[in-house]
């Protein structure tokens, strides 16, 4: 078996405005939910993402953070899209719903 890990995300769009594409099957696996449930959460706006470009000693790396409900997954990737490290934690509060803060 090959130890080489295949990239789980890809970058396009250039350095000025990079676009990140993650494999939904892999993301769903990280959250321990079926892919169709992840996609449903995404359609309802219940999955948040954040991308940070590494600077200084972290140059050439990207930190991707995904929040789904009360779970937060964070992965550090190199420029080739290979996962260097990851963590999953439980947040102290759930995502606010789309209705929260709206008045009827």
Structure in a nutshell:
The protein is an alpha+beta fold. The chain has helices spanning 24-31, 35-43; strands at 9-12, 19-22, 47-53, 61-68, 71-78, 83-90. The protein is globular, with a radius of gyration of 15 Å.
Give a written overview of the molecule.
The chain is α+β, with helices and mostly antiparallel strands and 104 residues long. It has one domain (9-90). It contains 2 helices and 6 strands; from the N terminus they run ββααββββ. α1 (24-31) packs across α2. The longest helix has 9 residues, at 35-43. It is globular, with a radius of gyration of 15 Å. Mean pLDDT is 79; it is low at 99-104.
Keywords:
104 residues; alpha+beta; two-stranded antiparallel ribbon; 2 helices; 6 strands; 38% strand; globular; disordered C terminus
